[in-house]
């Protein structure tokens, strides 16, 4: 029997939404963060995400193991990342244009190969019941967390450490901040960038597998509804800081849960407005944190948008 | 310095080999038959939902002699549908077209029908009027009455007296389904309420899952929906242990223990009728509608959780419906703001034209149309 929570249901649903909806944003934005730190933008991650969702679902269905599905999604993500990386390494190729092309290619291929996968049911990823201490079923449901969410948080912390304290991080940032300096020091620029883009692809593929194998947990052609694109924007919003990416992902996840939660407690007028909440929030935060002098702080200098 | 042997030629060679792979999987269409019918869907045809219900109808035609069936899916409600129709007509000699999505009709089907007077167009949604081209037409089913029957089953099943409804947009057909479902449940116990959440669009998997979770958190223990593909909804609700009533097609395979019953389309009746008339060379009707009686809609078989009492009452009401003229919406009826919307003594059977401009939610529905 469910307890009647009254208005407490709203913050609880927002918390649950943060934990459930944020993971794809988190993985894509962390991957893109690494790619952009190396000086490239991969806009094609939306396509990688959708293809990852399809490949993860198919992999889990064919092998019977959801974790093999996640792995398959990540590996296909690597392929897309490598493709972007190699194409952009050719002279005079624009990374944004290639990204848009790969976004269309990824979604198109996913729809084509995903056709026979819409009907069957694949095994789902398990959940960690963080709310087992509570006897309120709503709390238990809200605190069910995917292992991928925890892994995402750990990756965010690890990336922060790698960027700041390790040689790999230093080389990555040097390649992204000044190709001339990296060249002078004798570091290989293209392999670093290709590797960083492949990592971004891997993360986006895993994010797709989360969508199809955990929440909402099904493969269909509308599964992403633009989350990959929003996540790429989140990186800029988070000023290329992995922990800020984590916060931004939570914010977007929670804001997305606000609309349904408010309707469920009886605030039913103007739900289209509540659905716009994440975007209004972004505009407000950008407005209040904008600064004439610090606009590009943290931005890799080699990015085509900041050059 | 070139660390990697990259050049355009190698990329193009390996890329084109990859791109050619899908071509090997193409199957050539069957040879000419005496009638070619084309179906156009707005989404994937195996979505456990609206498009699948039409594809099942199309599959029934494939079994008939002398008919070639063409299908195209994921066609947006834009000029794209005109291109799809023209390609079916010009390249495949289609003479009977079924563009199945509501938004295809105006202006796309109307204009194409005027351009190709020898081809018959029948659109799902019931929008045809006398002023439109005579080679166009409409068909639609009254599925609200089937939702009423689902509501009776849900009313017996609920322990919390709270039902949940995940809806896409507040258009008359959706409102009719919400109201009919609620009235069915209230015929079992007037205390029952239905909480509705609108997701804002027809295919929003993440929002549908969030809405389902929010409804269950608020105590709803039997849920149904009106979105294009109920797959995510059914899996999420059953995963939380709630019971579900299906929509569009049967979702029983997705949740065998938690599926109670459902309101399904049965388009094969309509498509077979059109195809038989066309094969015989007769004129096709322009305006076709029907409900449970005519076999345009049906209800899913009861799931294992449905009680004996629920089966009995639902079967009794269904027998009543099958006699014809049954009215779900009848007075006295108030909306959920307290205004009287149907006066006492007045009844609107499913064929009533007044129901097509429904803009209210009945008493007992928690939610708002805007």
Automatic annotation (TrEMBL), chain A:
Keywords: Cell membrane, Membrane, Transmembrane, Transmembrane helix. InterPro entries: ABC_transp_permease (IPR001851). GO terms for cellular component: plasma membrane. It is a multi-pass membrane protein. The chain crosses the membrane at residues 6-31, 43-62, 68-89, 96-114, 145-163, 192-213, 219-238, 245-265, 271-289. It is found in: Cell membrane. GO terms for molecular function: transmembrane transporter activity. This is Nucleoside ABC transporter membrane protein.
From TrEMBL, chain B:
The keyword NADP does not apply. Residues 36-300 form the ABC transporter substrate-binding protein PnrA-like domain. InterPro entries: ABC-Purine-Binding, PnrA-like, TAT_signal. Coiled coil: none annotated. CDD domains: PBP1_BMP-like. Residues 1-32 form the signal peptide. Gene3D superfamilies: 3.40.50.2300. GO terms for cellular component: plasma membrane. Keywords: Signal. The keyword Signal applies. This is Nucleoside-binding protein. It comes from Fulvimarina manganoxydans. The lineage of its organism: Bacteria, Pseudomonadati, Pseudomonadota, Alphaproteobacteria, Hyphomicrobiales.
């Amino acid at each position: 029997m469910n307890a009647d929570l009254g208005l407490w249901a709203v913050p609880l649903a927002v918390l649950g939404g943060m934990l459930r909806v944020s993971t794809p944003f988190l993985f894509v934005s962390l991957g893109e963060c690494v790619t952009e730190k190396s000086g490239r933008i991969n806009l094609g991650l939306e396509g990688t995400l959708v293809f990852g969702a399809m490949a993860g679902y198919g992999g889990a269905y064919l092998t019977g193991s959801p974790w093999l599905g996640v792995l398959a999604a990540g590996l296909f993500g690597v392929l897309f990342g490598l493709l972007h990386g190699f194409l952009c390494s050719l002279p005079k190729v624009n990374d944004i244009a290639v990204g848009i092309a790969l976004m269309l290619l990824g979604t198109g291929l996913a729809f084509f190969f995903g056709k026979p996968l819409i009907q069957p049911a694949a095994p789902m990823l398990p959940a960690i019941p963080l709310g087992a201490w509570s006897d309120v079923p709503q709390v238990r449901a809200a605190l069910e967390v995917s292992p991928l969410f925890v892994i995402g948080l750990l990756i965010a912390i690890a990336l922060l450490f790698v960027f700041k304290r390790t040689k790999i991080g230093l080389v990555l940032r040097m390649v992204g901040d000044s190709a001339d300096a990296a060249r002078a020091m004798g570091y290989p620029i293209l392999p670093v960038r290709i590797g960083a883009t492949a990592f971004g692809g891997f993360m986006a593929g895993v994010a797709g597998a989360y969508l199809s194998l955990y929440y909402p947990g099904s493969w269909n052609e509308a599964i992403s509804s633009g989350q990959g694109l929003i996540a790429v924007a989140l990186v800029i919003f988070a000023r290329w800081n992995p922990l800020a990416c984590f916060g931004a992902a939570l914010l977007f996840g929670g804001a997305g849960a606000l609309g349904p939660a408010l309707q469920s407690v009886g605030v039913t007028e103007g739900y289209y407005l509540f659905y716009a909440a994440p975007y209004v929030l972004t505009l407000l935060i950008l407005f209040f944190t904008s600064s004439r002098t610090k606009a590009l702080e943290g931005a890799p200098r080699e990015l085509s948008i900041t050059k | 310095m070139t660390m990697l042997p990259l050049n355009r030629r190698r990329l193009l060679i390996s890329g084109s080999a990859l791109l050619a792979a899908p071509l090997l999987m193409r199957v050539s269409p069957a040879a000419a038959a005496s009638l070619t019918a084309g179906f156009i869907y707005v989404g994937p045809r195996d979505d456990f939902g609206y498009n699948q219900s039409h594809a099942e109808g199309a599959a029934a035609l494939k079994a008939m002699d002398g008919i070639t069936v063409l299908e195209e899916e994921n066609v947006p409600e834009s000029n794209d549908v005109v291109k799809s129709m023209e390609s079916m007509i010009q390249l495949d000699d289609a003479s009977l077209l079924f563009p199945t999505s509501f938004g295809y009709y105006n202006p796309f089907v109307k204009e194409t029908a005027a351009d190709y007077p020898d081809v018959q167009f029948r659109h799902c949604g019931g929008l045809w009027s006398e002023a439109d081209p005579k080679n166009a037409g409409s068909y639609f089913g009254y599925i609200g009455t089937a939702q009423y029957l689902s509501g009776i089953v849900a009313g017996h099943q609920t322990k919390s007296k709270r039902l949940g409804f995940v809806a896409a947009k507040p258009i008359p057909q959706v409102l009719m389904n919400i109201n009919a479902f609620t009235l069915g449940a209230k015929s079992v116990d007037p205390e029952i309420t239905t909480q509705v959440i609108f997701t804002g669009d027809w295919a929003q998997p993440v929002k549908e899952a969030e809405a389902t979770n929010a409804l269950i958190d608020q105590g709803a223990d039997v849920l149904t929906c009106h979105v294009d593909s109920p797959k995510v909804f059914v899996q999420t609700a059953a995963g939380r242990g709630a019971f579900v009533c299906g929509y569009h097609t049967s979702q029983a395979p997705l949740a065998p223990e938690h599926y109670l019953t459902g309101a399904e389309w049965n388009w094969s009746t309509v498509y077979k009728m059109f195809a038989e008339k066309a094969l015989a060379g007769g004129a096709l009707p322009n305006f076709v509608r029907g409900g449970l009686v005519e076999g345009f809609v049906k209800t899913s078989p009861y799931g294992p959780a449905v009680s004996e009492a629920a089966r009995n009452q639902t079967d009794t009401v269904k027998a009543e419906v099958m006699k014809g003229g049954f009215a779900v919406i009848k007075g006295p009826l108030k909306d959920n703001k307290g205004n009287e919307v149907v006066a006492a003594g007045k009844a609107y059977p499913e064929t009533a034209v007044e129901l097509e401009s429904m803009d209210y939610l009945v008493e007992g529905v928690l939610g708002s149309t805007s």
